[in-house]
Amino acid sequence: MLYPIQNEVRNRLDLSGIWDFKADPEGRGEDEGWFDGLEGARPIAVPGSWNEQYEDLFNYLGLAWYVRRAYVPAGWRGQRIFLRVGSANYQGTVYVNGERVGSHEGGHLPFAFEISRLVRWDAENTIAISVENELKPTRVPSGNMKSAIGAFASFPRTTFDFFPFAGLHRPVVLYSVPHVAIDDITVVTTIDRSEGVVKVTARLSEPATAGGSLTLSGGGTALRAELAFEDGVATAELRVPNARLWSDKDPYLYDLTVQTADDRYTLEVGIRTIAVEGGKILLNGKPVQLNGYGRHEDFIASGKGLNLPLMVKDYGLMRWTGANSYRTSHYPYSEEEMQLADREGFLIIDEIPAVSLQFDTEENIAERLRVSLQQIDELVARDKNHPSVVMWCVANEPMPRTLDLAGAGDSGGEDTGEAEGKAMLETLLARARELDPTRLVTIVTLMGGPQSWMEQCDVICMNRYWGWYVLGGELDKARASLEGELDQVWAKFGRPIIMTEFGADTMAGMHGHPSVMWTEEYQADFIRMHLEAAAAREFVAGMQVWNFADFAAVQSIMRVGGLNMKGVFTRTRQPKMAAHVLREFWARP
Ligand code: GCB
Question: pTM (2 decimals)?
């Protein structure tokens, strides 16, 4: 799943822009041939969520159609042509010139179909994509669960705390490659004293025997190795003397080019290692702290749609607070985000959309396992070459049937689903580790959840809300509970701990002296308390505040105006007092 690029042998045409759009609540489109064009269509922006573009579509999660026409440039003739969708949430189906080409499920990862035989060279081509985002118990993440009925029910009925935005959220691109193309590249870097070792495996689109070359350039270095493809696969190793290592402080990138007789692909490569030793995470053999945020792809009008100016601005704001890290809570972010993270030196915990996994019936669990494994496969395939990605996260807050919030470590004899949960979660961790033994793997755990679910994690990632959902308003007691729990978990596992979430809803502009819940003062005190508790513990390897910015959640009595207000910044990116506290801790000269 190489990112489509433009060079002298590859082409790329971005179809972002205004498309025709029509909702299809009765599912008539396929029978009525909507893929040929939409009657009574309205204009819609791609990328973007439909929910934020039209008021009547705000809560619409059913089927909808996107259509546009495009020429394929004549210069692409003789090459293989693909249509690639960056993200269609949740299920996308592609039609070209009236023919159904294929479908993809899972809302946050790219998919591409070859359309060479369908392309018209002498006329415009009609490209249609239907997208459907129904909430279902078997999907990942799940919705419309029976258990969600009751006082804490939300609308729409998600199992997760963010708005289920729908649509084409990332660019749709046409691209072309030579007949025998470079299909995949895997880069693994290690360090041998002052040398950087770059091991590359390249795969062709055919099991051919062929020659090729590999070059690495940057910082005055230019290295070359021969590639001998057998059965379409070749490997080579380059040793970079006095390598300039990639890190959060110096995110140096080399250019790596794979060249074959017909094709050429260049990607940016950072030489770095990531490991764990005792209570420390080691980047290039040296301890590093992952300070930053849990985030969301979320903004007014664009919804979950790729928003490049916002992305650049957010990196600037994160840096301004001194952050060097974030988690792609709770789904894979755009490829453009990952590229920027490589460039800007952010350390990423890369997460699949397995948020709030529940362990109810055997059939549901089996289906969610299948989808989650698919998402791990696709995520690792997409992101494996990004130096910024240091850890795979295979689940956020899997849910036992009952919670042990007092932390007593027992559930009073009730069946919490611990065994089923453990089996599924360990299968997910094992898959990520098998696909990529060079990175760390983790599960982000829920307050009061079974500790046995952490056993196979390289890093213990904990979401904790001492002082908010538990002991709200009592920060002194909250601190004692937090410290007690951190010390207990460290004593038990002896592994680095990252607090992947801690936060307090805060209404920007609301003040209190003394500070009370929802005021800016309370959030500032809450965050200070957590950072102090962490600073006193060497085994705490990272602190990620929930959340970077206020974001759209679902409607419930917990979410004022449908927003989760735990942002350090407002949804329009103005700092709350807490931002200055973070600067004090993280951005000190
Ligand atoms: C959590 C979830 C996150 C929620 C957050 C909250 O534990 O992982 O998705 O938004 O709590 O604010 O309640």
Answer: 0.97
55 a catalytic residue: no
Q: Give the rounded distance of the alpha carbon of 399 from its chain centre.
A: 20
- Reduce the DSSP state of residue 395 to 3 states and report it: strand
| Kind and range of the H or E run holding 573 | none
What 8-state DSSP symbol labels residue 381?
H
Residue 373 contacts residue 109 (beta carbons within 8 Å):
no
Determine the atom of ligand 1 nearest the C-alpha atom of 469.
Answer: 13
Query: Would you give the end-to-end CA distance of the chain in angstroms?
Result: 41
Q: Smallest Cα–Cα separation from 348: which of 366, 363, 362, 334?
A: 334
At 406, is the pLDDT very low, low, confident or very high (cuts 50, 70, 90)?
Answer: low
Ligand 1 pocket (Cβ < 6 Å) reads 161, 330, 396-397, 463, 501, 546, 564, 566
Bridge partners (DSSP) of residue 421 are none
* pLDDT tens digits, 514-538: 999 999 999 999 999 999 999 999 9
CA–centroid distance, residue 161 to ligand 1 (Å) = 6
User: In this structure, what are the phi and psi dihedrals at residue 269, rounded to the nearest 5 degrees?
Assistant: -130, 135
Q: Are 57 and 163 in contact (CB under 8 A)?
A: no
- CA 463 to ligand 1: nearest atom: 7
| Active site annotation includes 30 | no
CA of 429 to the centre of ligand 1 (A): 22
Residue range 153-181, pLDDT digits in tens: 789 999 999 999 999 999 999 999 999 99
Judge whether 538 and 495 are in contact, CB under 8 Å. no
To test the ligand 1 pocket, which listed residue (501, 518, 571) has its Cβ within 8 A of the most ligand atoms? 501
Nearest CA to ligand 1 atom 5: 161
pLDDT at 588: 80
Identity (one letter) of the amino acid at 532?
A: E
Measure the CA–CA gap between 536 and 530, rounded to whole angstroms. 10
d(Cα 382, Cα 376) in Å, to the nearest integer? Answer: 10
Q: Residues 6 or more apart from 283 whose CB is under 8 A from it?
A: 247, 248, 272, 273, 274, 347, 390
**Token couple for 489:** 């978990």
Structure tokens at 464: 């904790």
